[in-house]
Design goal:
Helices cover 69% and strands 5% of the residues. The protein is mainly alpha-helical. It has 3 domains: 45-170 and 178-323, no CATH class; 385-456, no CATH class; 469-631, Reverse transcriptase/Diguanylate cyclase domain (Alpha-Beta Plaits, 2-Layer Sandwich). It has a 5-stranded mixed beta sheet with strand order 2-3-1-4-5, sandwiched between helices. The longest helix is centred in the middle third of the chain and has 70 residues, at 301-370. The two termini are 65 Å apart.
């Protein structure tokens, strides 16, 4: 253990026969040695750069293959997309290809996807060949929107794998310290994002148009996806326009010049704004406008894929050249270092012998402390006077660090009574730390109290202390799940007070609040252990009882609570009486073909309906039935 006070730090120093400065004078070749050390570090750095660049070259090759895979997937999708959309418009597939000027479109189909997939290492494949084969079987069976969705899922997987690889590639480029490579990675990422966004705009526009035409529920998701894709496309194209590479800038500008004012851009703006789709205005389908719109959209993909392919190839080439250069530089540096070290070895051995042992101990101790290890024995203060003084100072620092570590451990474990927290540290820093510990301790305590208060307020009614509406709905959802899982009977009681408004209006709202608090206490008192009680609001309460023994058991609970509430309630105005109407909704967790899966709001609505029926009929407890549902309409909804 490290000692403070009369421990190692109080050892007498060795006489100053030769100080560290005097000994260092003997190292007349110290600058050369320093140069050698720096050269060794430079050589090691060059080796690391060479290794990083070799990995960059490998990653760039994988990026190119993933780009080819996505291109093949897009090519295989095009005729299937045309077939599905043509069927939705009621026109032949060949006619649609002619309208889109795709009659001569050459695609290897999913066979090309399988081929590109096989060129990737198993660890880099975004999806399996089995998934492609299932997609092919679905196409043969009959292309539809589900097939298009499958294409989307495969492209999402390919894009995600591309992005993952891109992230790793960027980390290796940063490690290499080559800014020119980093710019190429930026262009590759921006082009990939732009291509993904462009594809998203085309597919989501098609989804939106044909969802509108077919009046399906895909309209809103398509609009949202189109807005996100358009935003991502603009953002990525802005990055490409500001690229450091002039060819990338020219390509991006050509794309952006073609886009404004086109039917494709108007269609996107109309869809995002929720305006009627131009090709369907007037109740007729304008096939020429549809064909023009999608034909123009196809011009976005080729240049972007070209940028991605070029950047991948350039990365591979540049990484190869730079890796070889770094390797040569590392070898040359090592040779130079070796020569300098041989020349300095004879001169420095004698001096180094007197410094090696104490310095090694000090360096090792510093490393261990830097790594968080404070358990080693104190350093003996021997060697040159300066090193001995450094060892003593080091021992004092470590002793203080151990005390600091103890304080931090106490705070981390919320042990505010730990005696280490009150043990002072020396100096102004110690005083500041003690003040910080005091502030942190108070903050931790205040935070715990605040968290407990906020958690209680979020789930409880401020007036009665019972759970509130939100907590009741959550609890009912959990109870329904348990009832279904265990096949048990669940009872939900809706309690609506009678004559409460009269009490509230006659004796003041303060008296009404006292009545509500007393009713809440009586409900909680008469509920079974484990039953959930809550106030929904106003004079409405709910009780959730699980594992009820048949209908009679639920009715008995309701009658017992009603009887208790009906007893006189003491107040400053004398005894007051209120009644209650109880509506019960029962859910049998066993299979019930007439009520397979009610949700919490539906169950609570049933209980409310039964309570309303009880209030109308004068009965204390009424159980919800289908007949009751058809003959009674509640005045409010608990949802």
């Amino acid at each position: 253990m490290w000692k403070v006070g009369n421990g190692w730090s109080d050892m007498h120093l060795a006489p100053r026969s030769f100080g560290l400065r005097t000994r260092l004078v003997a190292l007349v070749l110290a600058p050369a040695l320093l140069l050698a050390l720096l050269g060794g570090a430079a050589s090691l750095r060059e080796h690391r750069v060479a290794d990083a660049l070799a990995e960059v070259r490998s990653d760039a090759d994988l990026m190119g293959r993933l780009t080819d895979l996505r291109s093949e997937l897009l090519g295989a999708r095009a005729p299937v997309e045309v077939e599905v959309r043509a069927a939705a418009l009621g026109i032949p597939r060949d006619t649609a290809l002619d309208l889109l000027d795709l009659s001569s479109f050459k695609s290897t189909g999913l066979g090309g996807v399988v081929k590109q997939l096989g060129l990737l290492p198993a660890s880099a494949r975004p999806f399996s060949q089995a998934q492609v084969e299932r997609l092919q079987a679905a196409i043969v069976h009959g292309a539809d929107l589900d097939v298009i969705d499958q294409f989307d899922r495969l492209d999402d997987l390919a894009r995600q794998r591309f992005d993952d690889r891109l992230e790793g590639l960027r980390a290796r480029v940063v490690a290499s310290g080559r800014a020119d490579l980093s710019r190429r990675v930026d262009d590759l990422e921006a082009a990939s994002d732009a291509g993904t966004a462009a594809g998203g705009m085309v597919t989501k526009l098609a989804d939106y148009w044909f969802a509108v035409l077919g009046k399906t529920d895909r309209v809103t998701p398509a609009r949202v996806g189109l807005a996100v894709a358009a935003r991502d496309f603009d953002r990525s194209m802005d990055l490409l326009v500001h690229s450091k590479d002039s060819s990338v800038v020219r390509t991006a500008r050509r794309i952006l010049v073609k886009k404004p004012g086109t039917p494709f851009e108007r269609a996107i703006d109309d869809a995002i704004a929720g305006r009627p789709a131009e090709p369907f205005i007037g109740g007729r389908v304008n096939l020429d406008l549809i064909a023009t719109t999608f034909t123009q959209s196809f011009s976005l993909f080729g240049p972007l894929l070209k940028v991605m392919s070029q950047r991948s190839d350039e990365l591979q080439h540049a990484a190869t050249v730079l890796s070889k250069a770094s390797s040569r530089s590392a070898v040359q540096t090592v040779l130079a270092i070796s020569l300098v070290i041989v020349l300095l070895l004879v001169v420095s051995l004698a001096v180094a012998a007197s410094l090696e042992r104490p310095l090694s101990r000090l360096i090792e101790g510093t490393r261990r402390v830097g790594g968080g290890d404070l358990t080693a024995e104190p350093l003996p203060p021997d060697g040159p006077a300066e090193i001995a003084e450094a060892s003593v100072a080091f021992n004092d620092v470590v002793a203080n660090l151990r005390l600091l570590e103890g304080k931090v451990e106490a705070l981390a474990s919320y042990d505010l009574a730990d005696p280490r927290l009150v043990k002072p540290l020396p100096g102004a820093l110690g005083e500041a730390l003690d003040r910080s510990v005091h502030v942190l301790s108070g903050s931790i305590t205040d935070r715990e109290r605040l968290q407990q208060t906020l958690a209680f307020q979020a789930s409880h009614d401020a007036l009665t202390g019972l759970h509130n509406r939100a907590a009741a709905l959550d609890a009912l959802g959990d109870a329904l799940a348990r009832a279904r899982r265990n096949g048990t009977l669940l009872a939900v009681g809706f309690l609506d007070l009678d004559r409460f408004k009269q009490v509230n209006d006659t004796y003041s709202h303060q008296t009404g609040d006292e009545v509500l608090r007393e009713v809440a206490c009586r409900i909680d008192l008469q509920a079974r252990a484990g039953d959930f009680c809550a106030r929904l609001g106003g004079d409405e309460f709910v009780i959730i009882a699980e594992n009820v023994e048949a209908v009679a058991g639920a009715q008995a609970i309701g009658k017992r609570i009603a009887a208790e509430i009906g007893e006189p309630i003491p107040s400053s105005y004398g005894p007051l009486r209120v009644g209650v109407s109880v509506g019960l909704a029962l859910v049998d967790g066993a299979d019930d073909p007439t009520d397979p899966d009610p949700d919490p709001v539906a169950v609570l609505t049933r209980a409310d309906l039964a309570a309303y029926a009880a209030k109308r009929s004068g009965d204390v407890v009424v159980v919800w039935t289908e007949t009751l549902q058809q003959t009674t309409s509640p005045l409010r909804s608990p949802a």
